[in-house]
Every structure is written in C-alpha cells, then in structure tokens.
Automatic annotation (TrEMBL):
It comes from Cymbomonas tetramitiformis. This is Methyltransferase. Pfam families: Methyltransf_24. Signal peptide: none annotated. InterPro entries: SAM-dependent_MTases_sf.
C-alpha cells in the first residue's frame, strides 16, 4: 500500500478507520477484500474512476443514474436532457479502462434508485456509494432501500454530509431543503444519515479533510453471521 495511506487499513476488522478524503474509500475496499460495488448518482463517473484506480481487485461495479432532467431538484447536477446525454458519454469514457473484454465488469443502469433497487439481492453489494438526490427524503429513501443490499462487512457510504443551511452557506445555487415531492426539510443529507445511523446503531464516520467541505460519510455493516 502506498505510504500516502499511513495507516494499515487491514487492521480495522470491525471498526472503520478515519479517512481524510473520499477517494480513500477505494483503498479501504481493496484492503477489506471487497468485490462488488454500486454508485448511485454517477454523473460523469469521475469519482467512480478515482475509486477504481485504488480498488484494483474489484470484480463488478454498477453505475446507476437516470441521466435525465428532474423537477423539484435544485442541484447543480440537474441538467437538461441534451446535457445529460453528453455527461453519460463522458461517464462511459471515464470507466472504459476498467471494463473487461466481455463488457460485464462495469454495468450502466439508467434509471432511478428507488425503482432499480429490486435489481439487487439482499447482501449482494460490498460497497454502495449514495450521491444522487441530496434532500432529506431522497437520501433517507436511498439508504433505507440499499442498506439491506449491503453484504456483511460491506460499506455503505455517500457524499455531501451537510444540512441544507450549510450548503446554502457554501453556495447559493442549490436548495437541498426541497424534497422531490415538494416538501421542505432542512436536514438534507446530514440528518438523513444521522437518523439512520442512530436507528441502526451503526458507527458513522465522516471524511475529515475534503476540499470545499463536501465531506463523505461511511458506515460498515456488521452481521451476526457471514463475512466481517
Ligand atoms: C452530484 S452528481 C453525482 C456525482 C458523482 N457521484 C461524482 O462524485 O462524480 C448527482 C447525480 O445523481 C443523479 N441522480 C439524481 N437523482 C437520482 C436518483 N433518484 N437515482 C439515481 N441517480 C440520481 C443525477 O442525475 C446526477 O447525475
């Protein structure tokens, strides 16, 4: 492992190490011997590429995004449909180096996280990264739907551990208080994740030195049986 990652991540069998930046999740996946991943909210797959550069022994990565314009989504990621087609083409280019000859190591899934969840069996995903809608309702739904899909010892993580007020302070271009159904909830990602971690009694970790304060959160699933 590179000396950049000064901590021996393999020593964290049950707890999670503090990570500076989200790209180190790829190092963690590699160190833990994880194999199957899903990113929800992919855009240009720039982060997917960064993760896969570190996660050398991954066997399958699913990339899930509708790549289409949405209503009640005041987010810099909400583009018109022509723009989304270009973004999707860029995403395909970005992960092409990690594809295999059979073209089944990287799988693009075009659609919404809530309607595609039933594609995945429970306990079948070792790593899930949630970076789709950033409102409280969307994030709560995504993590509730995908937590059962995470394997024992697997990682559930996501981007932007922030409340709507914090985002508004950092940039005026987004309104993460607005849910898809038009309701308002100031908690956004931060409250959705906190409530989930409380309810499930899981250790919640947050990257501590991201550029621009858009930290990632991450948690590890432990089960009474199975791989951990
Ligand atoms: C912030 S971007 C993702 C950035 C990417 N994860 C990265 O770090 O490079 C958010 C993406 O989520 C997608 N998205 C929004 N709602 C979604 C949903 N319900 N299911 C899946 N993807 C969604 C948007 O189309 C957009 O491409």
């Amino acid at each position: 492992m590179s000396s950049r990652y000064f901590m021996d991540l393999t020593s964290f069998k049950h707890t999670l190490p503090p990570l500076q930046e989200r790209v180190e999740l790829g190092v963690l996946c590699e160190a833990l011997g994880l194999k199957v991943g899903l990113e929800i909210g992919v855009q240009r797959a720039e982060f997917t590429r960064e993760i896969l550069e570190k996660w050398k022994s991954f066997e399958k990565m699913y990339l899930l995004d509708p790549w289409e314009a949405q209503t009640n989504y005041v987010d810099i990621a909400n583009k018109n449909n022509d723009e989304h087609e270009k973004i999707l083409r860029q995403a395909k280019k970005n992960v092409a180096p990690f594809q295999n000859a059979a073209s089944d190591k990287i799988e693009f899934i075009r659609g919404y996280s809530n309607t595609k969840a039933n594609m995945f069996d429970d306990l079948s995903l070792d790593y899930v990264y949630v970076d789709a809608r950033h409102d409280y309702c969307g994030v709560s739904e995504d993590i509730s739907l995908y937590w059962p899909k995470v394997s024992c010892g697997g990682i559930l993580a996501g981007h932007d551990y922030l409340s709507a007020d914090e985002v508004n302070f950092l940039t005026k271009k987004q309104n993460w208080a607005l849910c898809g159904n038009g309701t308002i909830h100031l908690g956004a990602v931060r409250t959705a994740v906190n409530e989930f971690a409380d309810r499930h009694k899981v250790q919640l970790m947050v990257t501590y030195r991201e550029r621009y304060h858009f930290n990632s959160w991450y948690m590890r699933k432990t089960c009474n049986t199975g791989r951990q």
